[in-house]
Amino acid sequence: MIESENGTLSPSTKARLLNDTEAVNGDAAVLPPEEFGYPRGKGHWASCIQIVDPITTKDTLQRIELEENEAAVSIAAVSFASQDNETFLVVGTGKDMVVSPRSSNGGFIHVYRFLEDGKELEFIHKTRIEEPPLALLAFQGRLVAGIGKDIRIYDLGMKQLLRKSQAQVVPNLVVGLQTQGSRIIVSDVQESVTYVVYKFHENRLISFVDDAISRWTTCMTMVDYETVAGGDKFGNLWLLRCPEKASEEADEEGSGAHLVHERQYLQGAPNRLNLMCHFFPQDIPTSLVKTQLVAGGRDVLLWSGLQGTLGILVPFVSREDVDFFQTLEQHLRSEDAPLAGRDHLAYRSYYVPVKGVIDGDCKFDVPSIPNPFPT
Questions:
Q1: Burial of 368 (0-12, 13-18, 19+ CB in 10 A)
Q2: 3-state DSSP call for residue 298?
Q3: Counting beta carbons within 10 angstroms of the beta carbon of residue 4, is it exposed (0 to 12), middle (13 to 18) or buried (19 or more)?
Q4: Residue 151: closest CA among 164, 161, 91
Q5: What single DSSP character describes residue 367?
Q6: How many whole angstroms separate alpha carbon 241 and alpha carbon 234?
Q7: Which of 141, 273, 344, 353 is the most buried (most CB within 10 A)?
């Protein structure tokens, strides 16, 4: 795991200042951070990499402090095919970062080797890049990194990472990556998601479909090969699906030249994603994952919010269930109106009209509705 805190002196900086006789003014006693907190400093970052055993020892096994005002921003475990599929830990860092307005003096990608069955880390090398890599992901025996507006594919070299392919696929900043097969889903900080296909023979990354709505993406996950679910910073959850024809064309052999020269639509990708579901849960989603709550159970989408919310999106299997709960929701809107008098449908459609989602929160009000036919 990685940790980073802005405005805090790193242990190396604190030790250097304590040993500097000119910088010490009065008593230089080190106060316990548990009671007084860590020393603060504008423009400084304190960051570390930790190996934690949550099962056996329930303790931190190793701690690596980052120096030179670097802050860890992303992490991934990557199996490199060129190293007999050995798994390495890859950590992305930024140097001298300023949160707002966003700026930095470049970034680094650190590579570590796992030792003692993952209980220790051995530093291999680090590669300097232009911007902090906010997203890292294992991809076909290599590393794909989101650096600024670009995504790059790296392979492991002796002294640094070797760049194999690069493409600018988003207009602002890459903040998330997901992959299945040769397809990479790239999320932009304010322009939703873009589907990218990697053509191995041409060694090219080509974007072939994106969204028609600007979404300030905070999290996303792939539901299936065609569909992606995500959340944005305005408190929306949404489900987007790639058009079938565009998906088939992207996966065809030898379609790289056709995709490259296909005419763009409104300065974006040639195709647009279809909105399948949209919902306003009144909390900013911070993480989203497709999982099973019970072993062998149905797949659901589990999400967490900034205010501590935990929610799930459960797919309906039969059309009868959909019709029943839609009718029940309509009756609850008329029978159990909100206390503040606000329309329930308008509330769930705060930014975009609600689509394809039935509000499960209002179903808890069914027992409180008086029965017109008492027994």
A1: exposed
A2: coil
A3: middle
A4: 164
A5: G
A6: 21
A7: 273
For 222, the token pair is 């792939």
Residue 295, φ and ψ in degrees, nearest 5 = -60, 125
Domain ranges of the chain: 2-21+35-285, 320-368
> 69 with 96: CB under 8 angstroms?
yes
In one-letter notation, the amino acid at residue 208 is: F
Sequential DSSP letters for 290-339 = EEESSTT--EEEEEEETTS-EEEE----SHHHHHHHHHHHHHHHHHS--T
Q: What are the distances in angstroms from CA 250 to CA 133, 158, 192, 375?
A: 27, 34, 20, 62
Q: Rounded to whole angstroms, how far apart are CA atoms 350 and 188?
A: 22
Three-state secondary structure call for residue 76: strand
pLDDT tens per residue across span 71-119: 999 999 999 998 899 999 999 999 999 988 889 999 999 999 999 888 8
From the list 117, 121, 53, 54, the residue with the least C-alpha distance to 91 is 121
By residue count, the chain amounts to 375
Pull the structure tokens for residue 141.
């025996």
CA distance 83 to 195: 29
Q: Which CATH number among 2.130.10.10, 2.40.160.50, 3.40.50.790, 3.20.20.60 corresponds to the domain 2-21+35-285?
A: 2.130.10.10
pLDDT digits (tens, 9 = 90+) for 288-307: 999 998 888 889 999 999 99
Q: How many CA atoms lie within 13 A of 342 on its CB side?
A: 8
Q: Count CB-CB contacts under 10 A for residue 62.
A: 13
Q: Is the pTM of this model over 0.90?
A: no
